[in-house]
Specification:
single chain; 241 residues; alpha/beta; Rossmann fold; Arc Repressor Mutant, subunit A; 6-stranded parallel β-sheet; 11 helices; 45% helix; 12% strand; globular
């Protein structure tokens, strides 16, 4: 069931403009939902299209409301973000919204499952509320949004579980053109194709082409493995916390 509450601009009738980012709020806790909604109502390019309280409600809400981003406040019992991601992807993986996960845990034991489950963003539940709209915009554009410490931990886990990547020498980067290395660096920084195109003064189609060719050259399956390789080879390095 999709719920709405008084005083918040929830567009359950799918009437928002095409340029507005549509957000589905998935959270079992009333106070948290109200707080998040109050933050987002001040953003002119973001609109709340509905809210769900339980994991098993999400897939149908996504199919009905067609949000660009599902903002999921992770709760293992009532709103499991990893289960939500799997359910959405099984329902219609081609039109799935980006998933931004909020969690109260400081160190996430299931980080590997988070990224492999298709979750694009991870924020601590106690983050600065002002960071949530920015993260929603990034996720809507296809970028990855993760706090530095868990992101580095996750990259380490993925490398350890992927012998091909763990053994990858830095010399593999010699296969890339200068522009492909530029694209790979920006992808590893979590920047969307659209923003990479703007930064490098390229078309978005050209960025996608560079990403495709660099993955082919390096034997990578997808964007996630490209990010891992960029860190593992030292092409990009995490800043100090």
């Amino acid at each position: 069931m999709v719920h709405a509450f008084m005083g918040v601009g929830i567009d359950v009738n799918n009437t928002t403009g095409s340029d507005c980012i549509r957000v589905l709020l998935c959270d079992p806790r009333h106070l948290t939902r109200v707080g998040l909604a109050s933050v987002l109502t001040h953003e002119t390019d973001i609109t709340m299209v509905g809210e769900v309280l339980h994991t098993d409600e999400v897939a149908d809400a996504v199919a009905t409301l067609k949000p660009d981003v599902a903002l999921v406040n992770h709760d293992p019992d009532t709103m499991n973000a990893i289960t939500v991601a799997n359910m959405i992807r099984q329902k219609d993986h081609k039109t799935s919204p980006g998933i931004l996960m909020l969690s109260s845990k400081a160190d996430h034991e299931d980080l590997l499952s988070v990224l492999q489950g298709g979750i694009r963003g991870l924020l601590p539940e106690n983050c600065d509320p002002r960071s949530v709209p920015a993260a929603i915009r990034d996720v809507a554009q296809g970028a990855m949004v993760m706090k530095l410490k868990p992101a580095v931990h996750l990259i380490s886990q993925l490398i350890q579980r992927s012998p091909a990547l763990a053994a990858a020498p830095s010399s593999r980067l010699a296969l890339l053109t200068t522009r492909e290395r530029d694209v790979l660096s920006l992808v590893a920084d979590g920047i969307s194709n659209q923003l990479i195109a703007e930064r490098l003064t390229l078309s978005e189609a050209t960025v996608k082409s560079h990403l495709y060719h660099l993955c082919q050259k390096l034997g990578l399956r997808d964007r996630t493995q490209a990010v891992i390789l960029a860190y593992e080879t030292g092409l990009v390095r995490p800043c100090a916390v």
